[in-house]
Amino acid sequence: NEFFTKHKDLSGKKVLITAGPTHEALDPVRFIGNHSSGKMGIALAKECHERGAAVTLVLGPVPLPQVYDGITVIKVTSADEMYQACHEHFSNAAIAIMAAAVADYKPEIVSPKKIKKTDDDVPEIKLVKTKDILKSLGAIKQENQILVGFALETDNEKNNALEKLKTKNADFIVLNSMNDATPFGSDYNKITIYAKDGREIAFSPKPKTEVAKDIINTILNNHQTETV
Ligand code: CTP
Ligand code: CA
Q1: 137: region left, alpha or beta (phi > 0 left; psi from -120 to 50 alpha)
Q2: Which of 97, 133, 140 to mutate to test the pocket of ligand 1 (most atoms within 8 A of CB)?
Q3: With a cut of 0.95, is the ipTM above it?
Q4: Model pLDDT, residue 227
């Protein structure tokens, strides 16, 4: 019965997805992080699983407990751990989607003990860059692998998204528009997808479960050009 059977157009394919924030430790009790809820990447993982893919979800520390039936979840904390897990699972992935909000910087030194407050001075925390996971996968990507990145921008959206598409050697960049309709933690998202082949597809705001379908349909359909 076609009405009840989901189209298994990803069956036999491996899909690697990152989701959530990363936490970069300062000391045993503190970290640098961000507000990513992980909802977009989790919705993508579920969508790919329902379409028959073998999904590996590399998941940063997200606040909400979830059921991930049938999905291989690798829980990580830091950008370094996420990088490691992604490189372990990229080589046989047909599709890799980097939806995580990876910290761009981490403290150079992680104090083994809780940093104590002192009366006289304020600590200076030296930051160093984390590795760019998407860019590192773009550098080793094979012809038959599809690599998808996200971009969250507040200004100069299109140029920044196109720049990320190029510098990270991605096949698609999903631009997340930050606006009143889609605040952090929202179940809704408004996206525009930029493809390496020049396509630009704008979507209306919709639930992240629907956005996940739009993203997967777009990367599987090389001829779609209309605005949906
Ligand atoms: N990304 C990544 N590893 C990082 C930083 C980002 O894999 N260390 C990925 C994100 O998962 C996303 C894409 O790169 O798919 C773009 O992330 P974004 O933060 O928008 O871009 P940056 O290159 O970090 O640049 P900026 O934050 O300055 O906009
Ligand atoms: Ca960033």
Answers
A1: alpha
A2: 133
A3: yes
A4: 47
